[in-house]
Every structure is written in C-alpha cells, then in structure tokens.
Specification:
27% helix, single chain, GMP Synthetase, Chain A, domain 3, 154 residues, 8 strands, 2 domains, alpha+beta, 3-stranded mixed beta sheet, elongated
Length: 154
C-alpha cells in the first residue's frame, strides 16, 4: 500500500469572514517541496474572491486524470517497443448535476495527441493502447465520474 500527501494552507489575513468576503486563494504543498498557488474556480466564487491564476480543484481533477492516463500510455507504448516523441492532452471536464442532483464533475474528456518516432500504430491499435491505459489508470479507477478518452490523431 502506498500513501500520498498534500498540505493545503489558507489564511484569513484580516478579511471579513462571516460575510463571505474572504479570499479563496490558498497554497498546495507537496512532499517534493513544490508549492502551487490554488483557489476556488472563478466560475464558482466570483473574482476578486477567487484567484484566476491559481489552480482550482476542478482543474486539478481533470489534470490528475489526464496525467495518470498519459503515464500509463507511455509505459504501455514503451513495453510494446513504440517510441513516443511527444504527448499533449487538452483535457476538459464538465461540472453538472449528477444522478443525485448534486454538482459534480460528471464527464472528463481526454484529447491526447501522440507523436511517435518512426511509424505510428494504426488507428485501431492507438485506440487499444489508450483503452489499456485507461484500464490501468489508478485515478480513473478511483472516481465515479465517467472518464472518456478521445485521442487526437497527430
């Protein structure tokens, strides 16, 4: 079993908390020392109480799914003797009411574009590689959200 941590810190800094006039900006710290400015989404809490420059939880959710998928895709491609030169994914997520009527990330769609050195696999083989990566992805296996993968052919 593996254990992962993140430290999330926020301070009021004298703002009017009771009347909800406080900044939602905060900081994520990870075990390797990286610090990431974070905030609520400006789509959820209007500016200036949100910080558009900070990563919001919804963006992080989408990025986490995309990153996990990519890492598995690269591993599987390498095992199959396929050399990947570049991988880009313009992933997106949709916030909507779920079956219980609660706001949730209901769909995350990955749009991976993969550039191979030498010959590229067939479209069917590429989709099979992405399907296997999706089946291996720890994060996708951890959520109820439908996770779609729609590869973009290079």
């Amino acid at each position: 079993m593996s254990h992962y941590t993140a430290t999330i810190t926020w301070e009021r800094n004298g703002s009017d908390f009771i009347n909800h006039r406080y900044s939602r900006g905060h900081l994520w710290r990870f075990d390797g020392g990286l610090e990431v400015p974070a905030s609520s989404s400006p789509q959820v809490v209007p500016l200036p109480l949100s910080d558009a420059a900070g990563v919001d939880p919804e963006e992080a959710f989408v990025a986490s799914l995309s990153s996990c998928h990519m890492l598995w895709f690269l591993e599987i491609a390498a095992r199959r003797g396929l050399t990947v030169d570049a991988y880009t994914d313009e992933a997106s997520g949709v916030m909507a009411k779920n079956a219980e009527g609660k706001l949730a990330m209901t769909v995350v769609t990955l749009h991976p574009r993969v550039v191979f050195a030498g010959a590229s696999p067939s479209e069917a083989d590429l989709h099979a590689l992405h399907h296997e990566a999706h089946e291996c992805c720890f994060i996708a296996s951890s959520v109820r959200t439908e996770v779609r993968c729609e590869p973009v052919l290079a």
